[in-house]
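Two entries, shown back to back:
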Amino acid sequence: MSIDHSFFQLVQEEDLNTCVNCGLCLPHCPTYRVTGEDLYSPRGRINLIRSVKHGELSLTKEVVHALDTCIQCMGCEPACPSGVQYHAIISPAKAEMHSRWKWRDITLRCGLYVVTHMRSLRIFTLAVLLAQKLKMVPKKMPVPALSFRQPQFHLEDEDASKMEVLLFTGCVMDAWYRKVHIDTITLLEALGYSVKVSGDEYGCCGALHEHAGFADSAARMQKKIQRPQSNSMMVVNSAGCSASLKNTFAGSRTVLDINELLFRHITDLQRLLVRRTETVLIQEPCHLRHVQGISREVKELLEIAFTVAQLEDDGLCCGAGGSFSFSQPTMAQAVRDRKIEEIDRVIHSNSSKTIHYLASANPGCLSFLSGASIDVEIVHPVTLLAQSLISQNSTGGVQ
């Protein structure tokens, strides 16, 4: 690729200059931790973007690879003493690269097309399911075990005396993790809410596309879902989607991650949940902890019913990163390996109790971690909470 002085002009000089090259972001960057090279750190990538923007550096394949391999976990932002808005730097840079060279990411584009249309996603899901039954899918492929039996929504009748909420069902979350939606509805109804579901009318929120750098596709999808079915509060049980939807509806509609809403009812849940003997290890999705600042909420919710264990890696990314595990499998697996080392350390620690569950509130993390050899059940925290309802246990639910 030849030098082009017009690259990255949408990246603001003010954002670039906020970085003082102190390097405090380095320990919080998963790709730097894997490679040990400054090129693959937030500081290094900012310097690359600045040099290309100023015409001091060609946008070579090496530079493109360094930028493409940013997972955008945003672990660097809360660690930065200068308040660098790294997302405002890397997002437009990646979007520009994808818009200029559409041919180079055709495989990823095809993959994201599938989740854009719910019918195609369900056909793809059926194909994967059949392949799983025939044992043709590698165990390490980041896809959960699927089932022909898709649970159906059974919503309580409308009640004008109850506050209505809209559960955003999304794309992959609905096709692969419908059970989490059922459990979310169970919890919300137990707390006195009247629940509606967004369904295929909304479909995908565009978070995967936005994260991958397909800004135009993401904008079209966001525009579609901005046509409200109602003005009720929207609840989202996928960390990546809740982070994206908060931006989509900023100032026009209340959007809450399910963990935020449940935490508002922590006193009620202390009355509604039974105490169990199992121990849960929490894996915090980046877009929950780093982007939305939701961390202690999940821990305190699970502590109502379980003994909780935590990782000691400051929320380092698991490598899933939206579509990152598909587009950059080598780097993603290297990052995951470091995460698994920490998970295994806690699981096999002599000082900790037996770990029964690994809980993560994002489908990408759930799927990617399911492709690793972990000795415990990987589950969404909402499912554990729903299983712990007194009403569920008194009618033969999970003990």
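entry 2 starts here
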Amino acid sequence: MPNTDQGSQFTSNAFTQTVIGKDIRLSMDSRGRALDNLFIERFWRSLKYEDVYLKGYQSISELRAGLTEYFYFYNNERFHQSLNYKTPAEVYFN
């Protein structure tokens, strides 16, 4: 089930009818719940600016390999200010 916010691109008749027409259930976040996505939005921003935009991948296979490397780096090597300068892996496994 896709989950979207309530931006105009996701509430338009064209979008909702296309999704519903394919027999897909649609879920939307409640109004005013933008902070629910704060952590994942920060992650996507980091991924884009620290990896994707810098490397300009030319193929899907390059992208997959690069994302695999970045995910490892992000979770195991990159220190996060919000985690008191620990890695997510350190916080999760300790």
